Amino acid sequence: MPGKRQSGWPFSLVTFSLATQRESNSGAQRAHETALHFAIKQRAGQSHTSRKTEETAHCEAVHLKSRLQRLDSSWVSRVIQQTDFFFEGSRSGVLLIHGLTGTPMEMKLLGKGLNRAGYTVHGMQLAGHCGNAEDLLATGWRDWYASVEQAADALREKVDHLFVGGLSMGALLSLKLAADRPEQIAGVGVYGATFRYDGWSIPRMARMSFMLPFLKKLGIGRDRSFMEQPPYGIRDERLRAQVSAAMLGGDSAAAGLPGNPWYSLAEMYGLSAAVRRQLAQVTAPCLVAHASEDDVASIKNAELVMREVSAPVELLLLDDSYHMITIDKERRTLIERSAAFFDRVAAADIPQRAAA
């Protein structure tokens, strides 16, 4: 465990200690109208010295309103952007799945590396992601999983061996796909599996987030979100600065949302419970890769997978990374070990197919 703890939920996760964000359109409209009224009143009051007319003040107020709308749009009214990627390679393919409130971009470096190793790679985009909070809230974990199944069906038509790998919540979706389709999935990359937020940066209060499904059933907190704080799951400080700038700048397609809706976290816990019940059904070989100092999900999450799946398991501990191991300092090690793992599994499967 690091000597200095930092508060906050890293990249694609959130902290309970910050004020909540409200994203209702009516609230945004009231803010715009207030700004308009204030600017007109202020300019009108200054007209005797500045000689600006009320019409000029009105134009400036409209400009201010426009600026507020652009700022607000990063959270309220952004249209979903399609950011999935596809790299054509051999007849062995890998489906990569990003995490909650994340984006395919967090899987792209891994995808490029696997493609250089010869694999056909599809970095899919989960339903409701790469838009705004309302887009995400319109979906639940069953919608996210349905989009995974659809992507798997499409990739399977192009390859003979289908592997799947996911980061954080994406790891859980990968395990569920392997449990549901043992005859189709050749192997699984389990990257930073997150069944529960219990990493070293998670405040004690935030570890009670498993209660969110109960709050959702009561209808409490739909319009509330937890905002993110450093280190955003990234140990590399320069990369962390780039990611935080994109995320806080409203570029959800590049870096994900700057906050996580309560109800979406509740859905993630529903997925976690479902996958835990199915782990014994996973028979495809698994590469379980985890940061030894994961700030979001402790090594207990990786140990759960290793203990419960009914499959050969290989463990990769990364000592110089935080939660986002697909983009952090040891991403090249992850790429090399993943490619080698998939190579071995594919090679072992060829004689079995021939015998069959």
Supply the key terms.
disordered N terminus, 356 residues, 13 helices, alpha/beta, 46% helix
Structure description:
- By secondary structure, this protein is of the alpha/beta class.
- Helices cover 46% and strands 13% of the residues.
- The chain contains 13 helices and nine strands.
- The chain has helices at residues 25-45, 47-50, 54-73, 105-116, 133-137, 141-156, 169-180, 212-217, 237-248, 252-255, 262-278, 299-308, 331-355; strands at 85-87, 92-97, 120-123, 161-167, 185-191, 225-227, 259-261, 286-291, 313-318.
- The strands form two sheets. The protein has a seven-stranded mixed sheet, sandwiched between helices. A two-stranded antiparallel sheet has the order 6-7.
- α1 packs antiparallel against α3, α4 packs across α13 (331-355) and α7 packs parallel to α11 (262-278).
- The longest helix has 25 residues, at 331-355.
- Residues 1-77 have low confidence and may be disordered.
Order of helices and strands: HHHEEHEHHEHEHEHHEHEHEH
Shape: globular
Uncertain stretches: 1-77
Radius of gyration: 23 Å
By secondary-structure content and strand pairing, the structural class works out as: alpha/beta
Main beta-sheet annotation: 7 strands, mixed
What is this structure, in a nutshell?
This protein is α/β, with parallel strands linked by helices and 356 residues long. It has helices at residues 25-45, 47-50, 54-73, 105-116, 133-137, 141-156, 169-180, 212-217, 237-248, 252-255, 262-278, 299-308, 331-355; strands at 85-87, 92-97, 120-123, 161-167, 185-191, 225-227, 259-261, 286-291, 313-318.
